[in-house]
Amino acid sequence: LITAIKKLKGGDHRQDDTSIRPMISRSSAATVEKSVNEAVKAGTKILVGGKQREAFMEPTILEDTPFDTDARKEEIFNPMILLYSYNDFKEAVKEANNTYYGLQASVFTYDLNKVFYAFEHIEAGGVCLNNSPSTCVDSQPYGGIKDSGIQREGVKYTMDDMLETKVLVMCNIGNASYF
Question: Which stretches make up the Aldehyde dehydrogenase domain (predicted)?
C-alpha cells in the first residue's frame, strides 16, 4: 500500500497522469496538515505523506490514530488513510463505528461471512467491498447516516427528495364515473 501511495502523482487535474489533485484551497490543505501534526503528537505514526505544499496535501497513511484527534473524529475530506490492526473482525467493526460520521465504508476481504456481517453492522450509508467508497453509479443511493447527513445522491433518490408524495384513498364510490 505504501509503495502504491508513493507512486501517485499529484498535480494539475487536466493532465492524464495526475492521480492526486490539489484541495479546494491552501487553508483546507493547512487544516489537514494541522490535523496530521496533532495526531502525531498524540502518538500516531505517519507511514507515508503528511506534508502540505500550497493547496496540495500529500497522500497520507496514519497508523493507530487516537479517537480524540481531528484526523480521526472529524470528516476531513482529503487523501488520507487511517490504519488500525485488529485480531477480531467484530471488534474492528465496532471500532469503525466509533465516529460521529457515517458516509461510506470499505471492507477488503474474500470472506462472505465478514462481508455480510460488515454490511449489517457498519453504521454507514453504504459499504463497498474491495474498492474505495467513491465507487458510485447514478442508480445507487449514495449518501450517509449520523452527522454525514440523511440525503441520498443518485438521479432517482435526488428526484424523490424534490417531490411531495401524495396518496388518494377512495372508498365506497359505487358507480362513480370519470368525466
Answer: 2-167
